[in-house]
Amino acid sequence: MTKPPDSYRQAQLPDAHPPRLFAINYSTMNGLPYRDINVHSSPSHYAFSSPSSPSAPTLVVDRPSGDLRLHHGKLLGSKRVSSIAGILGMIKLRLDKYIIVITKAQPMGRIKGHMMYRVVATEFLSLREKPLHDPDEDNYLGLLKTLIKTSPLFFSYSFDITNTFQRQAHLDPSTPLWKRADDRFYWNRFVSSDLIDFRGGLSSGYGRNAGGHQPGVDPYILPVMYGMLEIKNTSIKGTPLTFILITRRSRLKAGTRYFSRGIDENGNVSNFNETEQTIILNDNASGGPGGFGSNQNGAAGGNAGKETQVLAYVQTRGSVPVYWAEINTLKYTPKLQVRGVENALPAAKKHFAEQIRLYGDNWMVNLVNQKGREQRVKEAYEQIVNLLHTSPSENVQGDRITSEKFHIIDPANAQTVYDRLHYIYFDFHNETKGLRWDRAKLLMNQLEPHVLKHGYFCGVDMPGDAGGVEVRRHQTAVVRTNCMDCLDRTNVVQSMLGRYVLSRMLIDLGLLHEGDSAEEDRAFEFLFRNVWADNADVVSKSYSGTGALKTDFTRLGIRTKAGALQDLNNSVTRYWLNNFRDGPRQDAFDLWTGNYLPSDAGIGGQLLFADRRPLFIQSIPYLLTANIFFILVGSLTRRAPDATVWPLRLLLLLSLVTAGLCANFMWSHGTLYVNWPKLNRQPPQIEAFQETLSKVSTHSVVGPLVGTRHERGKSDARLLGLEEGKKRIE
């Protein structure tokens, strides 16, 4: 089955699509991952086999070379170690190569009969019989294990969790699952590279050719998604249905809040997430006890003969697509840099060309503040949209209710693909100040005609047709929402839009009357709010380290004092994590996604993670801590009545002055005390660090204590050339 051209899928309005029948026969799929894998180990190899498929070849990984081969028949000389749920992939670090396996997975629910799982526990299998250790290797392993342990990873053995229902409808289900996976959301794509290369007959990474295509490897390759997944069997107005919310986080330009901003040269933006809200009616396969393979076409059960209908709506979020950064300085508000917008135009073209190809028209909702420090980001976004349009014209519409304004940028005459970009600005904070969160619906009034025009996906599983899917409607546009972090404000708007589209779906199905809303069903509204609030927390924790702000409004529909206190707690926690804990997390993302490849040169001598700041700089926090401790002990310890007081008071005064000087030094030179990433330092970060260190080195009093030799960042000075020709606005 061939995939229809993008122009057909995207250029038409939903109602313009004639019904199309896509035959999906799940029982004849090939290349599905094995559900049960036994691991056998010997000093010379690891062997992976499926006990439920005894005739299938065994995957053998030779030790310590890491060469891959398929073995047919019984493999001698190895003993069974354990059973695993799947293979995440293989990764080469500095001294050794490791096979990462899933040792425990938790069922999360079914979608059309297909069980979804969450990764609970993993194990790293060393290819060396006696693993080697050095500080860098141990740090690499620690970073990866922590990342996997704290990441929400999901997979299915029989369902493509990385693709929306609409994209799945145009894919050939006989293709192996990993080949169908969306590359953006195939989270373990890099660590699966050795298996994929071996499958394609390429070198396995150590020089030995695989000797042609190896389709027998397909069932050992398991695509995993990073994000959020909740499946709820519920009902609205007495009609049973399955409510599903899936958020997929892109592996491209993955990172943490302040260490990953804006766009890169390849057109990838930070914190890009695709959220799909789905309802399934008459989903007998998921409700029955038969598991995968039973009732998969919805032709059995209590609603036999009724159509299994899938209705899905997709939204996206992503960082403002220009070159910008925020530099941590220990201040609560980082230092903002917006670099020349014109230089970001090629990257922005790549980004939006892909977005239009995948989603159709893009309605870009910008929620950053129009005043203060965020103003420059807003203006840069509008400038890049103007550059993308051929003949842009800007119109500012006053709203009858509010004195604030909407800014809309649309092309005067559609001439290029980028004229399918439509920009809407909404000053979220100003509109909703005074806890008037209901005023966010003013934005919905702006989006409503466009959402109705471009519709949502609707597909029907035809009973008795071996899983045939009739696509009755396509979603031909996407709403792309952003704020500064693409977290808190974005969450509120996306949940609001999700509720509106859900009500529209139910009206179109005849389950609600025109003008009714899904929120009138209180039980479902409670579920809906909490699922979306859970989604907000997952996306926020993945990027900022804490749950989302403003989730009391998402959960309850109002702002509360308890919610405000929770926001305060999350804000303080974010400050701590973003300044002192996110550096290692960013390193872990870079290792996992292949943005940093460990070198095996100079084993034991690099100490990449060692602190190379001048000793004086390193000593300041310890001096501060010691003096604060002495002040507390001296102030709280009981003294004898006849003890001499003035020496202690003098020492306390001296400690107080020293602590004050240390604290002032750290606050004034905060860039030196941020826990920066060690592996891929970005040019703005390097520049800020070196500028601050140079300032300290030339100080009349502190300079001699620091010296002129500073190694940290020295080897990265060449990276500063990447910013040549870029105008910086500060």
UniProtKB/TrEMBL annotation:
UniProt-recorded name of the protein: SAC domain-containing protein
Entries under Pfam families matching the protein: Syja_N (PF02383)
Keyword Transmembrane tagged: yes
Residues of the signal peptide: none
Gene Ontology biological process terms, A to Z: phosphatidylinositol dephosphorylation
Keyword terms of this UniProt record: Membrane, Transmembrane, Transmembrane helix
Segments passing through the bilayer: 615-636, 648-667
InterPro entries found in the cross-reference section: SAC_dom (IPR002013)
Annotated SAC domain residues: 144-545
PROSITE patterns the record matches: SAC
Keyword hit for Transmembrane helix: yes
GO molecular function: phosphatidylinositol-4-phosphate phosphatase activity
Organism classification: Eukaryota, Fungi, Dikarya, Ascomycota, Pezizomycotina
GO cellular component, one term: endoplasmic reticulum
